[in-house]
Amino acid sequence: MQEATVSYAQAIFLMSDGEPTDDWESGLEQLKETRWFKAAVKVAVSIGDDANKETLKAFTGLIESVLEVHNAVMLKKMIKFVSIRASQVASKNSNVSDSGIDMGDKQKQQDLNANIQEFNEEAAREPDNDQVD
């Protein structure tokens, strides 16, 4: 992350199908202090209805960055969708300071969230077969 010309668009995915079983808060606080976390767009994925969406929101910072999937087909589509959109958003908002930290982090996350609505609309139209267990 030292050189803007050689850095890639960072996207961090957190996937959950339930509740945390450890001291996730202290781990998340440590993660939030890293340059990678600060520069990345964050997306959390609730697999099924049982994931704690408030915990996932704590990771992303915004409930709009929490997606819900119910089958393997939509999970694959979501990963592809977010990866492509994160690259597009990151390249559009790239502005690295002398310290190597991207100054457009909040804007990148907001731009990605605007695109997530498109995914959610598609997910709502998908049949709920091929359940993810």
What is the structure about, briefly put?
The protein has 133 residues and is α/β, with parallel strands linked by helices. The protein contains five helices and three strands; from the N terminus they run βααβαβαα.
Describe the structure.
- The protein is of the alpha/beta class and 133 residues long.
- The chain has one domain.
- It is 48% helix and 13% strand.
- It has five helices and three strands, in the order βααβαβαα.
- It has helices at 24-32, 35-39, 53-60, 72-92, 105-125; strands at residues 11-16, 41-47, 66-69.
- Strands 1-2-3 form a three-stranded parallel sheet, sandwiched between helices.
- Strand 2 (41-47), helix 3 and strand 3 (66-69) form a beta-alpha-beta unit.
- Helix 4 runs antiparallel to helix 5.
- The protein is globular.
- Mean pLDDT is 76; it is low at 95-103.
What features would you highlight for this structure?
single chain, 133 residues, alpha/beta, three-stranded parallel β-sheet, 5 helices, globular
Q: How many structural domains?
A: 1
Please state the structural category: alpha/beta
| Count of helix runs | 5
Distance between the termini: 37 Å
Q: Based on CA inertia axes, which overall geometry fits?
A: globular
Strand order of the largest sheet: 1-2-3
The fraction of residues assigned to DSSP E strands is 5-15%
- β-strand number: 3
Layout of helices and strands, plus pairs?
Elements: E1 11-16, H1 24-32, H2 35-39, E2 41-47, H3 53-60, E3 66-69, H4 72-92, H5 105-125
Parallel strand pairs: 1-2, 2-3
Helix pairs in contact: 4-5
